[in-house]
């Protein structure tokens, strides 16, 4: 009886550990793709049990990542699909770097996300329609990049069906205009987009 319980406990612990390592692995996969001239990612040691002691990373009481704070860090390189593997991430703050490439659609799996701040980088390509899944998102700041295409309807609908308060897509190469319909709930939401088509 007793040994069975112990085996179960060890098994449960193993599951917990694997989960933590997975999140660390996801961030480490990103690190390997980044150029980091200021060594801000020096503490990101993938051999640790979990990433919760890494600088610029915040975890909840379950050792699951809730914040990544790397604004104005001098980083260049891409955003990677593995960033979608952080189920409890609430704040992805990577503004004012030199990040390039497209926005991975896998970010649509970050269903706990409150703030997606990718502004002032060199991101290109279109805004993934799947970001319309992010019902908890309150701040979506994509301004000052090189994004093209139109804002997907699914993303605009976050204003009506989600919690979005600010969407700044200004200073990109987006086409089209967004009309300010005055519907209930819309007045508190700001869309900031360039007038030029
Ligand atoms: C930690 O995990 C437990 C069990 O899965 C859950 O009930 C609890 O809400 C979690 N706490 C946080 C801060 O996510
Ligand atoms: C989200 O995660 C699920 C399961 O982990 C996966 O099947 C799906 O492809 C992911 N979606 C995106 C957009 O990455
Ligand atoms: C929106 O983006 C533009 C361009 O980056 C910036 O100048 C402006 O301050 C931003 N506005 C808000 C409210 O974030
Ligand atoms: C929207 O309409 C309501 C009712 O007519 C009005 O009080 C409010 O000022 C309007 N809001 C905006 C942003 O135009």
TrEMBL record:
Protein name as catalogued: Leucine-rich repeat-containing N-terminal plant-type domain-containing protein
Coiled coil: none
UniProt superkingdom: Eukaryota
Pfam family, one: LRR_8
Ranges of residues in domain Leucine-rich repeat-containing N-terminal plant-type: 21-60
Keywords, in A-Z order: Leucine-rich repeat, Repeat, Signal
SUPFAM superfamilies in UniProt: L domain-like (SSF52058)
Signal peptide region: 1-20
């Amino acid at each position: 009886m007793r040994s069975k319980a112990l085996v179960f406990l060890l098994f449960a612990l193993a599951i917990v550990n694997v989960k933590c390592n997975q999140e660390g692995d996801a961030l480490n996969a990103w690190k390997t793709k980044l150029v980091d001239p200021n060594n801000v990612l020096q503490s990101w040691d993938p051999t640790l049990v979990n990433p919760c002691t890494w600088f610029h990373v915040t975890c909840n009481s379950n050792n699951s990542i809730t914040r990544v704070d790397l604004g104005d860090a001098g980083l260049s390189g891409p955003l990677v699909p593995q960033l979608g593997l952080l189920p409890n991430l609430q704040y992805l703050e990577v503004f004012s770097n030199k990040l390039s490439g497209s926005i991975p659609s896998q970010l649509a799996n970050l269903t706990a996300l409150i703030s997606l701040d990718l502004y002032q980088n060199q991101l290109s390509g279109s805004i993934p329609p799947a970001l319309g899944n992010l019902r908890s998102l309150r701040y979506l700041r994509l301004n000052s990049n090189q994004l093209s295409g139109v804002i997907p309807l699914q993303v605009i609908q976050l204003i009506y069906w989600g919690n979005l308060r600010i969407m700044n897509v200004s200073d990109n190469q987006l086409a089209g205009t967004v009309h300010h319909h005055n519907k209930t709930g819309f007045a508190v939401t700001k869309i900031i987009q360039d007038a030029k088509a």
